Amino acid sequence: MKPENSGHDDAVLSGLLREWKVDSDLPPRFSEQVWRRIERGETAATFSPWASLWNRIAQAFARPSLAAGYVAVLLLAGLAAGYFQARIGTERVQDELSTRYVQMVDPYQRPPR
Amino acid sequence: MKRPWLILLGGLAVALLAYGGSYFISSAPMHHLEHSPAPALAWLQTEFHISSAEFARISKLHESYSAACAERCRRIDAKNAELRTLLASTNTVTPEIEKALRETAELRAECQKAMLQHFYEVSQTMPPEQGRRYLDWVIGRTLGPQHATMTFDSPDADHEHHHE
């Protein structure tokens, strides 16, 4: 829905804009500040928590001591997990075998056939 | 930007390898027990630190005990079958039932006596300290207090029956 007199208004507005003159001076370092605001806006628009996290990880791994610490912690965690998992399995097998021995020597403890 | 990925995934690979290696080494004795010709006796040897010579004697004792035990079990099964037939034919305690019950109890006592004798022989084959430990353990599992506790007023009975 275009207003009927829009062509007339556009012509008036164009005339006024042509006549308009800015007398005041721009503030100091105006251009630099404008570019800085544009940069900040772009950074805010592309911010993602994953990218931020990844950047922090990449920065951390850039330090050899932190990278070596990370690998060492995982190595120890893997060793401990394997050891405890095996211990649980060993205890279960020992329980089973001790019960089997008792059933071998005590006929009243044998499972019903 | 490849280096962080390499460190991240390399660390995870190291953890997996460490887990596998540690599990394999720590569970090797368990696999050895499970795959031995007589796993329960192999467990006995490991648990009570029995030497090879002692283990050979214990295996022989076990073999001869098992053969005699099988014969006693056959007699107990036959006596139980006889008792079941007698119980099915009447609704009173006849002299025959009384006799069969007595004989069943005698067979059970004979079985337990032979079992206890076997435990003593096995324990005497082990080093003294391990022999005592074996006796404590095996008597606890077979003829221990839980088998003798029949009343509710003893401390053992309270321990045994408090969940019921």
Outline of the structure:
The complex is a heterodimer of chains A (113) and B (164). Chain A has 113 residues and is an all-alpha fold.
Describe this structure in words.
- The complex is a heterodimer of chains A (113) and B (164).
- By secondary structure, chain A is an all-alpha fold.
- Chain A contains four helices and no strands.
- Chain A has helices at residues 6-19, 30-45, 49-61, 64-105.
- Chain B has helices at residues 2-26, 28-34, 39-47, 52-88, 95-125, 128-142, 145-148, 155-161.
- The longest helix of chain B is centred in the middle third of the chain and has 37 residues, at 52-88.
- Chain B is elongated and about 90 Å long.
- The chains are: A mainly alpha (113), B mainly alpha (164).
- Chain A binds chain B through residues 54, 57-58, 61-62, 67, 70-71, 74-83, 85-87, 89-90, 93-94, 97-98, 100-102, 104-109, and chain B through 1, 3-4, 7-8, 10-12, 14-27, 29-30, 33-34, 39-44, 47, 62, 65-66, 69, 72-73, 76, 108, 111, 115, 118-119, 138, 141-142.
Helix-strand string of chain A: HHHH
User: What is the approximate shape of chain B?
Assistant: elongated
Residues in β-strands, percent of chain B: under 5%
Radius of gyration of chain A: 39 Å
Classification by helices and strands of chain A: mainly alpha
Q: Give the biggest beta sheet of chain A.
A: none
Helix/strand-derived class of chain B? mainly alpha
How many extended strands of chain B? 0
| Helix percent band of chain A | over 70%
Number of strands of chain A: 0
Write the layout of secondary structure elements.
The complex is a heterodimer of chains A (about 110) and B (about 160).
Chain A: H1 6-19, H2 30-45, H3 49-61, H4 64-105
Chain B: H1 2-26, H2 28-34, H3 39-47, H4 52-88, H5 95-125, H6 128-142, H7 145-148, H8 155-161
Helix pairs in contact in B: 4-5, 5-6
